[in-house]
Amino acid sequence: MDAVAVIDIKDSIVVRAVAGKRNEYQAVESRILKDGEITPLAAAAAFYEKLGIRKIYIADLDAILGDTNNIKMIKKIKNEYPDLEIILDAAFDRNNSPIPYLEEFLDYAVIATETIKNLSFLNELKDYKAKIIISMDLKTGSLIHNIQKWQNKTLKNIVNEIKKLGFQNFIILDLANVGTASGISKYIRELKIEFPELNLITGGGVKDYRDIKKLKRLQFSGVLIASAFHNGSLGEKEVRLIEADDILYQIAWCITGAGHLLRESIDQIEELLAENSKLKIDIYLSKAGLEVLKIYKFYQRLENLGCQIYKDNSASSPIIGKIYKGYYDVLVSAPTTSNTTAKFVLGISDTLVSNLLAHAGKTKLPVVVLPTDIDQNLVSAAPGKEVDVFPREIDLKNTEKLSQLADTSVISEPKEVKSCLKKFF
Fold it and tell me: For the whole model, what pTM was predicted?
């Protein structure tokens, strides 16, 4: 999946698009651009050099609105960054053919349904189908177009008609969502399910990685991103994550200082990774969790799984920002000591793991907890032997309270994690 940065040009500067109201677009404000540097080249340079972007979509609004065009500026971008693929929407039609630009410098030309008057123009582009992307802009679900025979046709019927002409590349977005951080429209996702064989790019309303995960799992070819790059919601790390073919699901797995069910929890991590090649598990260890892993001689085994391991060595736990970026689908805490359980129930967050649990609740991230104190009488594994454990009444009450917390599932053994994950993947 490609992370496609968007550059909207109006009056020869980069503007911020909001809800398709082109006459109201204002100069972009951006964290990745220097003050005053809002030229198309400056934006392309920031996307390329700071975020690692290798594909950009340019909407030449001056050309679309019929005033002039910015082809010279766009060619300059290509000259400066030859390996940066450019998708250009410049109101191409029979009187403004994209063929000369495709033959000279352009990677992809956008043919917009709002621009063309009939489908015969598409036949003239048959030799360039691989470089043509059909753009279908919608406004609250209604296709913007000027083709009479489409008046009473559904979006699916129109897509199918264009598909029969041999075109496979589409951009479909709802202008009402552009720049609003409101997420991708459900009916656009359903369209990909209807046409899995097509190369669909979408966008408009992307807030953070959570919105993009849904598209990635449906195998969209790309996602158009502008505002989320400029405001910092998505950065270089997220670009790499979007384009990583080997990651579709992510779990944050916490391990606290309990020997009880520790081996079985590691067994479950190992099993999940073996069964799902697209799954990434990040391990978060409390200070006691690290100590106990080493006492039980399990730490090396955990390292051998190839997971990223985070240790409790920062009071503010800045790594928790990954939760707010939408990286994870679920947080698992297994095993969870009575100490961490009590903190979770009481809302105390003074360690790495208790911080994760607290912020998972604040972001409505689903949580699966395996508390160690689940029965009145337990036989627990200790180094070199087994011991009897008799949880206190308060420990058992806290375990009971866990299940009353929102978005929290309580399990009694590690192998139950797998069945819980079916709800989130």
Answer: 0.86
